[in-house]
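[job 0417] fold request received: GTPase Der
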Amino acid sequence: MNDIETQRQRAHPEAVKIRTLVAGMTVTVAIVGRPNVGKSTLFNRLVGRKIALVDDTPGVTRDRREAEGRIADLRFRILDTAGYEDRTDGSLEDRMRQQTELAIAEADVILFMIDARAGIVPLDERFAQVLRKSGKDVHLIANKVEGRSAEAGLMEAYSLGFGEPVGLSAEHGLGLADLHSIVSQAIDAAAARAERAEQEVHLPAVDVDIVEDELEGEGEEATLRWNPNRYLNVAIVGRPNAGKSTLINRLVGEDRVLVGPEAGITRDSILVPWEWQGRTINLVDTAGIRRRSRVTEKLEKLAVGDSLRSIQYAEVVVLMLDATQPFEKQDLQLADLVEREGRALVIAVNKWDLIEDKQETLANLQEACERLLPQVRGVPLVTLSGLTGRNLDRLMDAIFEIEKSWNAHISTARLNRWLAGMVEGHPPPAVSGRRLKLRYITQAKRRPPSFIVFVSRPDALPSSYVRYLVNGLRDTFGLKGTPIRLWVRASSNNPYDDPTKRRH
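[job 0417] inference complete; emitting C-alpha cells
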C-alpha cells in the first residue's frame, strides 16, 4: 500500500471501508468442519501456496489462519479453522472450538466441509445445528468426491438441511467453478450494500503529502531508505512454552491465538495484522523450536520447518526467552540463525513477573547476552510479562529502533573518512613482508547493512582485522544489535587477479 493510500485511510476510514467493499476484499470466507475432512488442503488450494500444515493426522490445525484467497478473477479473505469438536470442558479441544466459533461470527460466507467418502457422522450433525443458529450464508461442501466411494456420502449430505452439496476435491482442484459462483454472489451482494451506503456517506477529497522512500543524497549524516508508514513483519520465535502466543494476544488485545499450559500448542505460523501507533504490524506467531535431536514426530518437524521459514520472511525477529531459564543452548542457536539470515533481532525476556531479584537478574542477563552473542553485540534486550502486559511499549520501541538500524544507509564519503581513521589507529598487519592497503569502502545494500572494502590483497587480510572493522562500523554508526555484512574484494583492475571474495 502506498503512502497516499495510508494517509487517506487515516483521514477518512469510513470512505476507505466503502471503497474496499466495492473491490470485494472485505468478503470473508471461512472453511469449517470436523477434523480431517480437508479444510487446510482447500485453504492452500485457494491461497495458491502451501502455507497451512497438512497431514493425515486429525487435528493438525489448531488456530484460525487467514490469507488472501483467489479463484480466477476473484479476491477475498479466507479463514482456515480448527476441526470442530463438541467440547466445553476447558480443554485444548474446547479452546479450539471457541476459535472456530469466532471465525464463524467473523465470516460473510461459510463453507461447511464434510468428507464425502466417510459420509455423515454425528459430529457433522452437531456442527450443522451450530451453523443453522449462526444465521450466516452457509454452503455445504462435500470433499474427496474423486471416485465412486463418495456417491453414498453425497446423497447422505442432503439430510443436513443445507440443500444440494457442492462436490469437490481439494487435493486435485475439482469443483472450484462452483466455489467461484458462491464467492462471486457474496461479492456482488457486498458491493450492492456498499453502493447503498456510499449514497449516504459523503466522500470528501483528501489532500496528502507524498513521503519519498529514497536516499537524500550523500550527506554527512547517515540517511534511511525507510518509510515509517510501511507495514512491518515481526516474527515471534523461541522454545516451546516461552509465552509467544500469550504475548501476541496481549498485544492485539484479544484471544487471537490459542494459549494454555500445554507446551507445543501452536503448530502453524499464524500471521496477525495489528496496528500500533498508526502503523500496521504483521505479527507472526510460530511453533516452539526444540533441539533437532528431540524433534521426532512428523507434525513437529513440519511445524518447526514452518517457524524457520517465518524467520526468513520476517524483517524483525523477537526471540522470546523464559526468564526462569534464559540463554539455553537452543536460544543461542536461534539467535545465531537469525543473524545468519540477516534479520534484525530483539531479545524479549518473558515471565519477568516471576523474578524476585530483578536488578541482579537483569545485570546477569545483559552480561550473558554480550558474552554469548558477540555476533550481534548490543542487541536490544527487553524484560516483559506477556501475561500482565508489563513493558510492551518498551518492546515496540526496541522493534522500531532496531528496524531503523537495519535500514540504515551511510554515505560513501563518511565511510571512507571512517576507514582512514580505523587504519591510522590500528594498521593492518604486514603479510610476507608486504603491508596490506585498504583503499576504499562503500555500502552495497541495506536490510541488513552490507559493505564492500577494497584491499590490495584480500586473501591475506586476517579475519581478526575484518572483525575489528565490523565492530568499528557497529560502534561508530549506531548499528548495535544489527547483523552487518562486510565483503573483502581486490582493489586492482588486473584481469588476471583472483576475484575471490569473502563475506564476514
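[job 0417] notes: The chain has 14 helices and 20 strands. The chain has three domains: 3-196, 223-407, 410-503.
[job 0417] exit 0
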